[in-house]
């Protein structure tokens, strides 16, 4: 039970900790000053959402997200959100593949070769099907967490841990709702794909509480560290580098490598979500379907997606609030089915 619980926990964290999160950009955009309570609230909402999604997945013994969506929202709305999730996963994965290529340009690898490399690594992962995805997260995510925590704790100790929490100054709490909502679609897509592999309720408790506590703790520490360098963040495209300027150049290279791994885990999670849904229409080994998906995406990595994302993300932010509300209300409306 514990081993499986940690496996699902790392899958959740791997889906959440993408390049946007690991770089500090997402946290800085949503939180910032007066956000301690918001991050605590996010941790609770996130853990609750994971628990509900995993519980429904286990009950449905699902292999993709559509049965879970239908259970949460009804068949009519599920069709609309089915299309939304496909577009979301596709667009985000294309951006991750492009980001993986751009990141390797730092060490003078041509952009096209870097894109082919990360795409190839994603395809290779699915030679082992679902086990490849969960094993990769179990290997990479603890390393990402340890290095990120190490940098943040060392930075705070350098400053003498100037962290303060004053209840009267916690005015940014609504950000918890939008931040959780923006991350809910990939969670549904990925966690619904493993429903048939969940054996015990205890696995769900471990995965949900563990991921909520870890992500909440890292988010709080990361946000407080970014506040200490807020005057320099505008000078950096990646906020994490505003913290790393206090470290030797070697650490910048190490963390750049870890950012690439964060991009990789997000790209893999996107392909995993798409693959699990497309298996209803396509038959064949997982790696072959993954190769097809990545091959379709490859030409699109040369197109600028900033305009697409500037339209899609605000739209998802609004529409996802409804999904989040439906998930959180599910235990109230279906009490008997969620507690079994």
From TrEMBL:
- Which keywords does the record carry? Membrane, Transmembrane, Transmembrane helix
Going by the entry's taxonomy, the superkingdom of the source organism is recorded as Bacteria
Q: Which InterPro entries match?
A: YkvI-like
Q: Where are the transmembrane segments?
A: 38-58, 79-99, 111-128, 140-161, 173-192, 204-222, 249-275, 287-309, 315-333
Q: What PANTHER family does the entry give?
A: CONSERVED MEMBRANE PROTEIN (PTHR37814), MEMBRANE PROTEIN (PTHR37814:SF1)
Q: What is this protein called?
A: Membrane protein YkvI
């Amino acid at each position: 039970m514990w081993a499986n619980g940690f496996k699902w926990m790392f899958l959740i964290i791997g889906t959440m900790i993408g390049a946007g999160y690991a770089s500090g950009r997402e946290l800085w955009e949503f939180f910032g000053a007066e956000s301690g309570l918001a991050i605590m609230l996010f941790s609770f909402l996130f853990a609750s959402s994971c628990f509900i999604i995993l519980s429904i997945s286990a009950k449905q013994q699902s292999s993709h997200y559509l049965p879970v969506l239908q259970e949460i929202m009804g068949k009519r709305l599920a069709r609309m959100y089915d299309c939304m999730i496909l577009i979301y996963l596709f667009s985000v994965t294309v951006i991750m593949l492009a980001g993986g290529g751009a990141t390797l340009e730092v060490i003078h690898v041509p952009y096209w070769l870097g894109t082919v490399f990360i795409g190839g690594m994603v395809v290779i992962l699915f030679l082992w099907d679902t086990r490849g995805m969960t094993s990769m997260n179990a290997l990479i995510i603890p390393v990402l967490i340890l290095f990120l925590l190490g940098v943040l704790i060392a930075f705070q100790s350098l400053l003498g841990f100037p962290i303060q929490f004053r209840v009267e100054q916690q005015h940014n709490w609504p950000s918890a709702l939008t931040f959780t909502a923006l991350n809910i679609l990939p969670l549904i897509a990925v966690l619904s794909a493993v429903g048939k592999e969940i054996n015990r309720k205890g696995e769900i408790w471990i995965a949900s509480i563990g991921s909520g506590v870890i992500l909440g703790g890292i988010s709080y520490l990361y946000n407080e560290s970014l506040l200490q360098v807020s005057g320099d963040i505008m000078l950096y495209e990646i906020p994490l580098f505003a913290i790393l300027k206090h470290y030797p150049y070697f650490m910048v290279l190490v963390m750049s490598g870890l950012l690439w791994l964060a991009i990789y885990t997000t790209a893999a999670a996107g392909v995993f979500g798409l693959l699990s849904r497309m298996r209803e229409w396509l038959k064949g080994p997982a790696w072959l379907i993954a190769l097809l998906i990545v091959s379709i995406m490859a030409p699109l990595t040369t197109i600028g997606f900033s305009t697409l994302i500037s339209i899609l993300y605000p739209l998802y932010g609004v529409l996802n609030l409804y999904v989040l509300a439906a998930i959180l209300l599910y235990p109230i409306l279906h009490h008997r089915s969620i507690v079994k």
